[in-house]
Design a protein that fits this description.
The chain is globular, with a radius of gyration of 18 Å. 42% of the residues lie in helices and 22% in strands. The chain is built from 8 helices and 10 strands. Helix 1 runs parallel beside helix 2 and helix 5 crosses helix 7. The chain has a single domain, classed as 3-Layer(aba) Sandwich (Rossmann fold). The strands form 2 sheets. The protein has a 7-stranded mixed β-sheet, with helices on both faces. The protein has 268 residues and is an alpha/beta fold.
């Protein structure tokens, strides 16, 4: 099974910069979600599909030196950047590992297992959710945040923004991914055998600031996939990016993130 080349968003250092921005935007809501679901001093935490390592660093502070964080991602380049960042900042309670989520083989090791924007990029999300459940101790908690991509909105209407949503969705579906996975997460949790399931929905939106630029930045990071898949020409992508840039700079406009469904449950 391919687990690296199917990802439609470019990674490496530029990919990490995008993930850093996204994590900054979601910091308040994710911190609250974690604190309300058992993340406290001394626990062991697994971040599956850690991306830029932002949640792992956040949790490393929440669990402290008695606790520990294991953070995995298939992108070896991002993992090396995360390791360097942790070393440079004297963070000693995070173990970063370059590993596909499909290859997780932990047994009853963690108090809390978490994945943010991971399952949407997988061809077999249920299989990975089962591995997450296996990784957590009995009584431990499983947390997932993921997207309902068509739930984006902007004001006023923008053809370039709509084209971005369409191209992202088509590129993801062609790779066997599910950009609409969010609403199905509670059912996936039930199928995996997770108990005491709860969920909520959040959707940040912006008229200024870094969060407002996520659509433009993400369009820029999927352009190679979009062009390679024949969904748009390089000229078309350039036009979309130019129009999105102008729309984003206009402080009278509003741009949202995708609708985000957050689900939690317990291993019996």
């Amino acid at each position: 099974m391919k687990t690296t080349n199917d990802y439609i968003i470019s990674g490496g250092e530029e990919g990490k910069a995008r993930l850093n921005t996204l994590s900054d935007v979601l910091y308040p809501t994710t911190t609250t979600l974690l604190a309300n679901n058992g993340v406290r001093p001394g626990i062991r935490f697994l971040d599956a599909g850690c991306g830029g390592g932002n949640v792992a660093r956040m949790v490393s502070e929440m669990v402290g030196e008695p606790g520990g964080v294991t953070a995995i991602d298939f992108d070896a380049a991002i993992i090396e950047l995360n390791k360097k960042e942790a070393l440079d900042n004297g963070v000693a309670n995070i173990s970063y590992q370059a590993m596909s989520a499909y290859d997780m083989d932990f047994d009853d090791e963690f108090d809390v297992v978490f994945a943010r924007f991971l399952l949407t990029h997988l061809t077999e999300p249920g299989r990975v959710l089962e591995r997450m459940l296996k990784s957590v101790k009995p009584g431990g908690r499983i947390l997932v945040e993921d997207v309902h991509f068509s739930g984006h909105f902007c004001y006023p209407a923008s053809e370039a923004f709509d084209r971005y949503i369409s191209l992202y969705t088509k590129a993801a579906v062609l790779r066997g991914h599910n950009p609409e996975i969010g609403p199905s997460l509670p059912a996936l949790f039930t199928k995996a055998g997770i108990a005491d399931i709860g969920f909520d929905v959040i959707q940040p939106a912006f008229s200024t600031g870094s969060g407002k630029w996520m659509a433009y930045v993400t369009m820029d990071k999927i352009k190679d996939s979009v062009i390679a898949q024949g969904l748009a020409t390089a000229e078309e992508v350039g036009y979309i990016l130019s129009e999105l840039e102008a729309f984003t700079k206009d402080e009278s406009t509003v741009i949202s993130l995708p609708r985000i469904v957050r689900v939690w449950g317990v291993r019996n």
